[in-house]
Amino acid sequence: MNCALIGTSKFAEVHLLELIKIGAKKLVIISRNANKWRILCKKYKSKFPKVNFEFSKKKILKEKKFDLIDICTSNNSHDLYLKYIDKSNSIILIEKPIISLKKFGKNYKKILNSIYKNNKRIIVSYPMTYLAKNFKKYFKNSNMQKTFDFIFKTGGKYNGEYINIDLMPHVLSFISSFFNHRILLKKNLKIKQKKIRKNEWLSRFSLDKINFLIALSEKRKQKTSLTIQLNEKKIIRETKIINGRFLNFLINNNKAILIKNPMNEFFEDLKKNKNRKSFFEKNRKLTYQIMDTNFKFLT
Fold this sequence. Notes:
single chain, alpha/beta, six-stranded parallel sheet, 14 strands, about 35% helix
């Protein structure tokens, strides 16, 4: 598979490894910073000798054909790259969010419509849909829910409302998967509280007779953690690197349960369904639901 990866951040590096796992044999890394590419190349060329690594500027996206183009750059730049590769026949993978609501405001839907009109094989990364399924296994009587807390801490770089732009797609894709895939379509969303600080974004709201608490924070060098509490029951997701492997655990009743890496699951699903129209259509519908719902928190 011939792939182009746009970006050289730590998270782009995660995507790089996942692309190799699903069969990338040629990987063109696109960046304005050649030095960062050299560091990545040096790090992985010996580890993956069968993968052909190349460096290029973005103009190569119009000069060569790629099976998959992966946009893994800052949130505010996603739309610029999507416009640049307008009408591409490649699969276009985008790290969430597809575009920034802060950048486009009430015009976001017009931009989304334009993006999807010109490319039917766009897929946005929502690994939380897979993680939610693992959590749900350990919550009994999930149809009797009254309160739901989602407490997410990361080592991200964003502040204030930009934390919402960065992390709410994770929250809303998790909620959609955990409860049902139509919950975000409900018309009874009621926002009761919203608190914004430099490194924190918090909201209390009700939706479909459930009271939600969403507490998000981003601080550099902060260890990522996720706590889910449904009524009185609490489960924590922890990650650890053991013998060079990035592992995910659910902590339930003081017992650590190893689960699949949700990012692995997302990329494996993409590989399996890359030729299925319904796979891209389902992702598109979820993207609109997430953007429509999150816009209400920013107005």
